[in-house]
UniProtKB/TrEMBL annotation:
The active site is at 188 (proton acceptor). It is an enzyme of class 1 (oxidoreductase). GO terms for molecular function: L-malate dehydrogenase (NAD+) activity. This is Malate dehydrogenase. NAD(+) binds at residues 12-18, 106, 113, 130-132. Substrate binds at residues 93, 99, 132, 163. Its EC number is 1.1.1.37. It catalyses: (S)-malate + NAD(+) = oxaloacetate + NADH + H(+). It comes from Streptomyces yanii.
Length: 329
């Protein structure tokens, strides 16, 4: 049976992450090995030529699943009929830029893109925001798309989730595939909280196995939370292949489901669970099935975790208040 191609829109397609992402989407890693895709590459005018070069390379791969590629700088065209949208293009923080300037510059990108999604995307649109500040950019886009169910707007904390698994595996000598139920809470920023209190390593509680609160507080959490800055320091550019890989993981899991006995982390609009104010786009433990996600309920949150979740949520609240004041939501 021939399946209908899925329309996948990627913004910032000519950037670093775009270059690492597009070939994996086209080869079937985003949705599955039997799902054909149409790619829509959305760039700013200065990025169009490089996007055309990338499209030439995509053609040269002769990917059996890639049906067509469209390149545009018009968001209404870029999101027309989109089933999946990966919002990667964003305004990076430059020297001397205040947080308010950064939020404002990104509001100028994510508000019109949210509106274009609202007006042009397919009814089943799923949106992942990668461009930073990812959670608040997702909130801006979601607020500009009143006709799209709010839960379709998500922000990426899967890179943090993967980083935390890798650090925990290195500490314990476990295989990454033995680690389950790890959680990233809060913002994709240095305040995020990677939580191992409910995580399992080969079925045993991870926090009990590690049994070292000092390592948790002074090594594990800061290493995961500041990993993005460490990569920038080492590479001279922010993470690209690992970020693209996490975007693939995020969408693949959302569409195809979490494994039994496991969950993942996604930045999603809060329903008020775990004391996170409703509407904030915050990272939670979620299970996914049939293209939908649900927050894992009923976890005991100890004092150590509560303080850290609250601190990250406080930062998200301040970001929301700042974009509200700027008239962006
Ligand atoms: P990059 O500068 O290499 O590429 C960004 C691209 O976006 C450029 O080609 C630019 O022309 C394009 N762009 C800018 N404004 C646009 C618009 N309005 N519409 C369409 N395209 C636009 O950056 P990168 O390394 O690819 O990173 C992209 C973003 O992802 C950054 O904000 C980065 O901080 C963020 N990031 C997030 C995570 C995460 O875990 N959430 C991880 C790594 C990077
Ligand atoms: C990362 O976590 O690698 C990025 O979000 C860092 C950044 O600021 O681009």
């Amino acid at each position: 049976m021939t399946r209908t191609p899925v329309n996948v829109t990627v913004t910032g397609a000519a950037g670093q992450i775009g270059y690492a992402l597009l070939f994996r989407i086209a080869s079937g890693h985003l949705l599955g090995p039997d799902v054909p895709v149409n790619l829509r590459l959305l760039e700013i005018p200065q990025g169009l030529k490089a996007a055309e070069g990338t499209a030439m390379e995509l053609d040269d791969c002769a990917f059996p699943l890639l049906r067509n590629i469209e390149i545009t700088d018009d968001a209404n065209v870029g999101f027309a009929g989109a089933n999946v949208a990966l919002l990667v293009g964003a305004r990076p923080r430059t020297k001397g830029m205040e947080r308010g300037d950064l939020l404002s510059a990104n509001g100028g990108i994510f508000k019109p893109q949210g509106k274009a999604i609202n007006d042009n995307a397919a009814d089943d649109i799923k949106v992942l925001v990668v461009g930073n500040p990812a959670n608040t950019n997702a909130l801006i886009a979601q607020a500009a798309a009143p006709d799209v169910p709010a839960e379709r707007f998500t922000a990426m904390t899967r890179l943090d989730h993967n980083r935390a698994i890798s650090q925990l595996a290195a500490k314990t000598g476990a295989a990454v595939s033995d680690i389950r139920k790890l959680t990233i809470w809060g913002n994709h920023s240095a305040t995020q909280y990677p939580d191992i209190f409910h995580a399992e390593i080969a079925g045993k509680n991870a926090a009990e196995l590690v049994n070292d609160e000092a390592w948790l507080a002074d090594t594990f959490i800061p290493t995961v939370a500041k990993r993005g800055a460490a990569i920038i320091e080492a590479r001279g550019a922010s993470s690209a292949a690992s970020a693209a890989n996490a975007a693939i993981d995020h969408v693949y899991t959302w569409v195809n489901g979490t494994a039994a006995g496991d969950w993942t982390s996604m930045g999603i609009p809060s329903d008020g669970s775990y004391g996170v104010p409703e509407g904030l786009i915050s990272s939670f433990p979620v299970t996914t099935k049939d293209g939908k996600y649900e927050i894992v309920q009923g976890l005991d949150i100890n004092e150590f975790s509560r303080a850290r979740i609250d601190a990250s949520v406080q930062e998200l609240t301040e970001e929301r208040d700042a974009v509200r004041e700027l008239g962006l939501i």
